[in-house]
Write a structure and sequence with these properties.
This protein is an all-alpha fold. It contains twelve helices and no strands.
Length: 209
């Protein structure tokens, strides 16, 4: 079906190379197929023909991120936000791009912007908490992560990070135990399950003393 769609798009472009929206559709099809260089080429053609909007730049950023071209993705996400400053997903993706570049302050700014336009998304609070955690701002991280599990209680990553912070940095073994147990409840098969069980056993012994 994807092969047929690509054939139809390419046929339309052969008949009229200036169909910018078809170049955009062809980009999406190539990206789904894994032909990322072709996807980038088609999107650039769409932009050159005047099909220039937030979606195009978000799509191009997604392809660049998949290829590991973070700097290129950051440029495209900024352009997308010029078209639509309230795009929560673009702010979030830009924040994660900054995280990959170890630009913590910039990432925090973007995650806060994302939350401003989507105040009940637990995943966004997790990303913000993670950014604070990476900077060693543990109290701020806890605030964001607690919001994360408030809106998305079954987020094992947020619970795990809360468990680690309470155990290692805020000296609160009871809260750490609670969140580590929640981590295993929601994702018992996770790769770090054995390590988390070890932490739980150690904390239990601490509480008995």
């Amino acid at each position: 079906q994807l092969k047929e769609a690509i054939y139809e798009f390419e046929t339309a472009i052969r008949l009229d190379p200036k169909l910018a929206n078809v170049h955009n559709n062809l980009c999406i099809a190539h990206a789904k197929k894994g032909d990322l260089d072709k996807a980038i080429d088609e999107l650039n053609k769409a932009v050159a023909l005047g099909f220039d909007n937030a979606d195009v730049h978000n799509n191009l950023a997604g392809v660049y991120l998949t290829k590991g071209l973070t700097d290129n993705a950051i440029v495209e996400l900024k352009l997308a936000l010029e078209f639509n400053p309230k795009d929560s997903n673009a702010h979030c993706n830009l924040g994660n791009a900054y995280i990959s570049k170890n630009l913590g302050d910039e990432a925090i700014t973007e995650f806060k912007e994302a939350i401003a336009y989507n105040t009940t998304d637990g995943e966004l609070y997790y990303y913000l908490g993670n950014a604070f955690y990476r900077k060693g701002q543990y109290n701020e991280a806890v605030k964001a992560l607690n919001q994360s599990v408030h809106y998305q209680i079954n987020n094992p990553l947020a619970h795990k990070m809360l468990g680690v912070i309470y155990a290692n940095y805020l000296n609160n073994p009871s809260k750490s135990l609670f969140h580590l147990k929640e981590t295993l409840r929601f994702d018992p098969q996770q790769p770090m399950a054995k390590e988390i069980i070890g932490m739980i056993d150690k904390l239990k012994k601490t509480e008995l003393k």
